[in-house]
Amino acid sequence: MAAVSLNSCMTQETEKFDYNVDRFADIQVLRYQVPGFEQLTLNQKIYVYYLTEAAIYGRDILFDQHGKYNLQIRKLLENIYQNYSGDKNSADYAAMVKYMKQVWFANGIHHHYSTDKFVPEFSQEFFAEQVKALPADKLPLNEGETAEQMIETLSMVIFDPAYMQKRVNQADGQDLVLTSANNLYEGVTQKEVEDYYRSIKDVNDSTPISYGLNAKVIKVDGKVQEQQYKIGGLYGAAIEKIVYYLNKAKEYAESDKQKAYITALVDYYTTGDLRKFDEYSILWAEDTDCTVDFVNGFIESYDDPLGMTGAWESIVNFKNVEASNRTHIISANAQWFEDNSPVDPRFKKKEVKGVSAKVITAAILAGDAYPATPIGINLPNADWIRAQHGSKSVTIENITDAYDEVAAGNGLNDEFAFSKEECELMEKYLTLADKLHTDLHECLGHGSGQLLPGVDPNALGEHGSTLEETRADLFALYYMADKKMLELGIFEHPDTYMAEYYKYIMNGLMTQNTRIELGKDIEESHMRNRKLISEWAYVNGKADNVIEYVKRDGKTYIRINDYEKLRELFGKLLAEIQRIKSEGDYAAGKKLVEDYAVRLDRTLHKEILDRYAKLDIAPYKGFVNPVYEAVTDKDGNITDVKISYKENYIDQMLRYSRDYSPLTKW
Ligand code: ZN
């Protein structure tokens, strides 16, 4: 018997899932498991399969949205890599491979998070030599372009640090359209774009379309106009493929509801009509009992400095029934949370509609969700649709599980937590507390509250994203400490919330800044949000010493002295942020962001970076997808869909570029 159990133990050991795929620059690439895929019905598997095809085919769109030279550069780097016959041990070659991996990861030449242009560590001469060494049919030339012209243009794009410096510029007082290197606008100024949308917006429309969501804004013959993303329009070749596979998937949809919104989505992709997109969004939001689900479209507007154009993304997923119990309890009590929040009653929803929350297993990540991916989603984004038809909120548990597996024992908490007590608190409760934070943030936080009549949903302008994330985070933080969590049976131990509070403040004031280069300030919306909340709570709790910086052996630590007062502070700030959003108080929102969310203390920042460097942890993570293979019989019918996890990062990227690249003619 002993031998048998030893054996089975050893088998388990050899079959342990390997999460680590690749490591370069500031990136760690992981893979995720898709537990439960084998248990889906054949119909559901085929549905998933076609939806994953529709997902991968959008990859080129995001590359091009991120910058007009990205697809050309990607192809050129891949061709150099695959045709290289020189010394593979040379520093230039290694640096070029690293750069290629960075470009893949960021879907372009700007960092996926900071949006700063990558600094290549290979020489311009090396680059030019490698291009010249390529056979003529491996040169990704634009119409009428010579190899010399391409080298000249791309050398400037890749090597000149001042040219196309930042993909999304949010710096106050600058022309955000002209100074952002993305490809969402061309030949127009910020003022021209704003004037254009002002001229076409109907301010009395209570169900407005998402202006600018699916268009590039250009100027033709001196006239500002939209170039729409649709079949026959911009990105038509990729959208055709997406539509082809959506139609294939539709044959295997689980219900008529699903068929109806796939039809609406296809109509929207075909016509570019944003009313159709709203129609699709409503039908989709109201379909809450499906097993397989997906996002596919121009969705989040963080990549647009003006917050309008959606970055293309897709996530295909299915419900994790067991884990969804937690989110069902929360959404079933949505009205209670809304009624009891510390917000002015005028800004509360009288009736919370259809907040549906579930835990899902991601089957594929694509576009803006690949390789770096969110751990929760709440859609649709249009405020009026959320208010009238509800929204779907999901926590992607197979992704958070992968993060947890890899993070366990990386040493971060040991280095930065104040004492053993905080470490133990986090070890015991953080996994559950983190999941609940995501659930509350996504399924109640974003969906809570209402605008006063006549307030423009975009009134907070460039600070809208930061303040919206702040609102959702505060809602989650405030309620985690409520005894309702114990009553509902979500937490068993009353200290559970403290693990999240400690981690949140430690992260907001210290550890998240490991992602920022010394000398720079915070720009990304979610990071600004965490800094805003932590810094505001620190400053406003000073009189009661709620949060304290403690120096020990030359190192700085965060100590929370009063968790209950901290909760009160979160409630107070939540009330104020909701007021700002409901009234559209731009000036107050801007002031909060500027006072609390942006600036870093250089001395502390340097200390954190030094301590973090010793831990050797990659600050950013992302994922390769599993590979789905359709097994067919002799008549071509799909009889099974197989999933495998063997593919590495380079192979996956090269395969996607080879097989799923409808926008490149090379
Ligand atoms: Zn959010």
Describe this structure in words.
The protein contains 25 helices and 14 strands. By secondary structure, it is of the alpha+beta class. The strands form 5 sheets. The protein has a 5-stranded mixed β-sheet with strand order 5-6-7-9-8. Zinc ion (ZN) binds next to helix 18. The site of zinc ion has 4 residues, from helix 18.
Report the total helices.
Answer: 25
Proportion of β residues? 5-15%
How many individual β-strands? 14
Overall radius of gyration = 25 Å
Average of pLDDT: 94
Biggest sheet layout: 5 strands, mixed
Helix/strand/pairing class, anyone?
alpha+beta
Taking pLDDT < 50 over at least 5 consecutive residues as the criterion, the unreliable ranges are 1-14
Sheet with the most strands: spatial strand order: 5-6-7-9-8
| Global shape | globular
Oligomeric state of the chains present here: single chain
Helix content: 40-55%
* Distance linking N and C termini: 62 Å
Bound molecules: zinc ion
